[in-house]
Every structure is written in C-alpha cells, then in structure tokens.
Amino acid sequence: MDQEYSVKSLARAMKVLECFSVQQPELGVTEIAKKLGMQKSTICNILSTFQKCGYVVQNMQTNKYHLGTKILHLSYIVNHHLGLRDIFLPHLHKIAEATHEVCYFGILHNNEVLYIEAVYPSTNQQTRNILGERAPLYCTGLGKAMLAFMPQEKAEEIINGELKSFTNFTLCDPALLRSDLEEIRMTGYAVDNMEHEFGVRCVAVPVFGASGEVTAAVSVSGPSPRFDHTTMVKHAETIANALQPLQRCL
Amino acid sequence: MDQEYSVKSLARAMKVLECFSVQQPELGVTEIAKKLGMQKSTICNILSTFQKCGYVVQNMQTNKYHLGTKILHLSYIVNHHLGLRDIFLPHLHKIAEATHEVCYFGILHNNEVLYIEAVYPSTNQQTRNILGERAPLYCTGLGKAMLAFMPQEKAEEIINGELKSFTNFTLCDPALLRSDLEEIRMTGYAVDNMEHEFGVRCVAVPVFGASGEVTAAVSVSGPSPRFDHTTMVKHAETIANALQPLQRCL
DNA sequence: AATATTGTTCTTTAATACTGAACATCTATA
DNA sequence: TATAGATGTTCAGTATTAAAGAACAATATT
Asked: Is B125 in contact with A119 (CB distance < 8 Å)?
C-alpha cells in the first residue's frame, strides 16, 4: 500500500494558489476550476478560506481573486532565513558598478533559476522587479553556470529533457549543450549568447556552497553589441573576483 | 446554523506556515504542535505535504523545517500585481537622495504597517532587508500617517486597543495619541519621536488611493540628532512634493 | 427582454484528516 | 557506557469534513 502521508486537500489548495501568475494575477472561480479540473464549489471554499487567512483578496468590482499581501510577510521570512540576499547585495553592487551592467543573482530551485535580486548600475537606473521570477537552466547564463556544476545525473535529466527553443541561438541539441557545459567547467564561467532573449548576452559565474555543491550564480547581462568576447572575459573575471570571498563558505 | 464555508484543514495548515518567523525561522514538529495545540502527527503530515509542494524544506542535519523558496515566487506575483513597488521606487530614490536619509515605503495590512521597500541614500549604503517586516500603527511614522487618515471607526479600534510601550516616548495614552493624530491631519505629515525605537526619529507622509482612502505611506528616518524640528518639516515637504504625482491615482 | 455565464449556497456521501499509540532516532545525563 | 528523555515518523481506525452536484442569485451579453 503506497500510502502517501500527505494532506491531499492542502496540496489541492496550494495548487489553487499556484494558478495565479504574473500573466494572470486575477482569476475567477470558474477559471480556476477549469484549469485544475475541479468543482466550482470546491474552489470557492478554498478561496474563501485563503481570504480569511489573508492569502487571497477578492476584487469587489470584478469578484475575481488575486494573491494577498500576507504572502509578502512569508517571503520576508524566507529571504531573511536564506540571508543570501543580504550577504550578496554589496557584492552585486560592486559588480554592477565595475561592469556598468545589470547584475543578477539567482539560486537553483526545482531545476529552474529562481531570480533573487537584480542590481542596476548607477548609469542605468531601471527598476524592473524580477524577485521570484523563474527561467530554464539550459538557456540562461545563470542557469548554465549552475547546470554545468550540478550532479551529472540531475544535469543529464535536464539535458535529455525538453529543450524548448526561445531564439535561433537556443542550444536545443543535447550534444551542443553538453559541449557548452564542458567549456563552462573549463573556464569557470557561462556565456549566454542570446539563447533566451534575442539581442541579450550574459556572463555568469557559479557560487559553491560549503560542501562544494552549486547553490547560486551571479551574472551581468545587457545588449549584445556591448558584450563582445574580450569584454565578456573581463566581466567574468570581475564577477569571479568579487565573489571570491563568498565561495565555499555558505 | 452559522456554517462556515471554509476548508478547516487548510486554515490549520496555513497557521503552521505562520508559525515561522524571523526570530524562529527553523522549527521542529513538536515545537509547532505545542505552539498550535495540535497533534504531532498532524503537523508532520501537513509539513510533509508542504515539503512536497516546495513551501517548506527540512534541514537534513537538524530535522527541523524552514520555509521554502516557492514562497518567493508567489511573492513576486503579489508584488507585480500590486505594482506598487515598481511605481514608488524611483520616487523613493529621489527622496533618499534629497534628504540623505533612509526612505521607507509601507502599506496598510491587517491593522499593521507592512514594509514594502527601503531605499538607502548613496551616502549611507546599508543593506538591511525589511521587505515584509511589520510594525504597529500607533507608534511608527508610517503607521501614524495612515492611522490618522483611516476611517474613524477602524482607527478608534486601534487607539482603544492595547498600546504597548516600546520606549519612554511611546504614546500609550489614547488621549495623547488622538491629539497627535489630529495634528497629523492638520499638517499632513506624521512625526515619530523615538516612539518605536530609542534614538530614531521619523517623518512620514500618507499616500491616498483613487477613492481617497489611505493606502500607503512613505517616510524617512534616522538618528534623532539629525532630526530636529526644522529639518523634519523640510523632509516632510520633500516627501510630499515627491509623492505629489502619485496621490489619488492608484 | 432573454440567455448565457458568473459566483455562491446547500445537502448528501464518500473520502480523508486527525487522533493516539507505537516505533525509530537521536541526545543529553547519570 | 548505559539509560532516560527527547525528537521525528509511522500506522490503523474512527469521526470529521471536504468535495460533488444541483439549485440559486447576480451579472454580463446578446
């Protein structure tokens, strides 16, 4: 009997929360019910519970629901516990100023890149909020930097999995990807040559934990004309140097 | 029959998530069970479900649990939907640079201040992460700025509620607090005179939504010697001017 | 005005979450 | 080193209750 010691109603409820996305921040009851193949009334009850707890808010005008601010408080605790953001922030600033490019910081989570922070150089004061955004491993600088140093078994799972094409430059061929990862292991840094977004190049360096496993990565990225080979090598060195004191101590 | 159309097991489970705090980011099964007066096995099942969903992670060394990064993704959606952070950030930067003080941005949530962002002036590069932190309304600049313009009924609830003393300067007397709030309504800005933290003064200005209700507040704060009366009046003006374009349009 | 389509309410039943005890691990203390 | 007291986990039975499905109310659309 493969009994699962899990609270099924809770798992179902969390799926409801996960229906909300940046693209669809507001959802109706039937919309969610269809999406999950569940009954309207069930969704209604779950949402009403979440609302009472503050995790979801109903828009009085449209009757649709959206995520509540209670989640922000939880995320604060996560961030604080991880502590990573606080530890990395000064170094990210240093890198952004030295390279005059946007500096990203992401961690490995569920076989995806989870962006934790973006720091803009003072010469480029954008304010795009990417906290919490996710991206695939195989076609981003941060992702490949981590993929290259992951346990081979886990890495192969991804390499042999679906490699969706985002641009003409995306490495959708496992063999090509493998040799790229090999080069990353040799040089110590990953290059994303417009593989995820056309016109955007990126250099990323992995960060290793105390026991030697990849835990995170830091990158700078920007418009491809500014990212020629020699510049990217220089940037990689800048990042690697800035991260030196953090390597193998987290 | 006052039947509650809520999923009780879900409400219970969310209470488990809420046990985690900055002070106690890691909790054991029995610890949570005691805190909530629930059975160990129940907590165990809930945690195991949350773990499968990625909302909670078990520390292999200590067997204790902590919140997972999945929450970050949800918080990203919240932030993005609120959009507030993105809208306010440039103005917060402006205020921080103009006053050379830390600039805070908070919203009203569950009768508390929920801190959304802190921006440090370039002359004071701290990196304290306060995203998601909460504080009482009656003894903080941001809080009083919002409390003063809340619906009277809701405000009185708080004024007549427990007014815990944080410092010798905390206004724990409802009458004193009321007259302070009256002054805030007159001047349009709130002053926190070391009421929450000794040695820290703060000036805050409320932000109003499209329908005229208080939705948020912005403040600058710092060591009391730097915050004399004339300086604070000047800071209040600076903030009010910077926020002008955002008033009554959100 | 008529007709979908939405969110909500309600009851019944089948599912399942919680209890409570037993078990397995680990960690202080004698 | 042995023992007692923690801890987290497993398990089966019962009492709870979550979900289904239909009916209702309130909008939106035609």
From this structure: no
